[in-house]
Design brief:
Largest sheet: 5 strands, parallel
Number of helices: 11
Strand order of the largest sheet: 3-2-4-1-5
Helix content: 40-55%
Mean pLDDT: 91
Strand content: 15-25%
Distance between the termini: 65 Å
Shape: globular
Low-confidence stretches: 1-5
Order of helices and strands: EHEHEHEHEHEHEHEEHEHHH
Amino acid sequence: MADVTGTTGTLVLAGTPIGDVADAPPRLAAELETADVVAAEDTRRLRRLTQALGIHTTGRVVSYFEGNESARTPELVEALMGGARVLLVTDAGMPSVSDPGYRLVAAAVEKDIKVTAVPGPSAVLTALALSGLPVDRFCFEGFLPRKTGERLGRLREVADERRTMVFFEAPHRLDDTLAAMAEVFGSDRRAAVCRELTKTYEEVKRGPLGDLAVWAAEGVRGEITVVVEGAAESVEELDAAELVRRVRVREEAGERRKEAIAAVAAAARLPKRDVFDAVVAAKNAARTGPADGKGLS
């Protein structure tokens, strides 16, 4: 219930299932039942979720979606300033990640209102983990622009991005987006199209962008997340000394040399043999030449 002592309330961002309702975090049900205000992207979907969980909301339920986000934020901040516990949920996944929520979080932070979260399913992380692409460094690009020229412009901005990239896309635009990615990134750039994650017809299609664009041209349905590998580093930046340095850093962190060589080769998009040869050459040089602290022992 709202605090009547003058203490400000708490804003709770709650992750909701991206497909399978059984993935709902245990705390979600408790927060839905006890929040003073539940702000939902779609109140009908919220009703279906609470029915599936076998619970009832006791607080006031209001809609909070892209169309009314700006207008409703002051109302929710006022409730928070009055001591209310406000729960924000979207249709699927975590609020504010390509969903409504950012404005409310920013407004709450500005007023020094406590903001916390109920962690839950994430299409971004689920797709990334299933993609088979490097996951040590990644970035989230959200939805690309709908217009062809703007879409190509955005893709060109990240053409040299070396981290694995994650995008959301609508099924009816997927073929155009993959074709644009193949044009800008190269048709042989590896990617994975993840659709209907955690649902009955879940599918992960992996392959070069050119092949995926041809596949998508036949029509694809469902919620779509696209994962694309980052750009390869130039040969000039990956001379033998740099390869050896990267292996040494991994070894110092506790990895065995074999695993370190494999990891460096995968990240650099090089054959393991190239990295192995560089390591062996550095080791031999360290034995025969003056010690400079840069070789491998």
